[in-house]
């Protein structure tokens, strides 16, 4: 019997995670069964259990890939571009809904909470390394607030629909530069989906 390559094994594992991510984003963790993941992936139940022993293991695997990239520098242009990317991922792939579910599930699952804590710590460290020289003394506090506000923007997208990132960009830059937030950051621009319960 020919030996299965590592590339093939990795591709199959990713196929399962992609299928699970699609189901979780659209239906939630609680309403997604292993049978649903089997149907979405097109693989057999035996093939899936070769890579994951339970749905919780799949949830953890999805979470490990859901951290997302941060801006490469802390300028208004790069931060705005990063939030626009988060916005596009929420609109096109339901990513914000998936992240919201991961956070909720992490409150109940110790293994998932460990992954989320590690991801948040890595994000804070990455942001702290980008803090301008004149704010280096406050790098840890800036990183803490920056990551928290980015997470808040993702949560707002998950709950409210399409939210203008401009006020969040302004507030994030105020955190980075150590200046009072400009007036536009105090106004929330809410572009609700037509037909939403609280739309005008």
UniProtKB/TrEMBL annotation:
Cite the GO molecular-function annotations of the record.
Answer: DNA-binding transcription factor activity; transcription cis-regulatory region binding
Q: Please report the stretch or stretches of sequence annotated as the HTH tetR-type domain.
A: 10-70
Q: Where is this region: Disordered?
A: 178-200
Organism, by scientific name, is Actinacidiphila guanduensis
Question: Spans of biased composition, class Basic and acidic residues?
Answer: 184-200
- Report the coiled-coil segments: none
Q: What taxonomic ancestry is recorded?
A: Bacteria, Bacillati, Actinomycetota, Actinomycetes, Kitasatosporales
Task: Give yes or no: UniProt keyword Hydrolase.
Answer: no
- The residue ranges crossing the membrane are none
What's the protein name? Transcriptional regulator, TetR family
The record's keywords, sorted A to Z, are: DNA-binding, Transcription, Transcription regulation
Residues annotated as DNA-binding are: 33-52
What domain of life does the UniProt record list for this protein's source? Bacteria
InterPro entries membership: DNA-bd_HTH_TetR-type_CS, Homeodomain-like_sf, HTH-type_TetR-like_transc_reg, HTH_TetR, Tet_transcr_reg_TetR-rel_C_sf
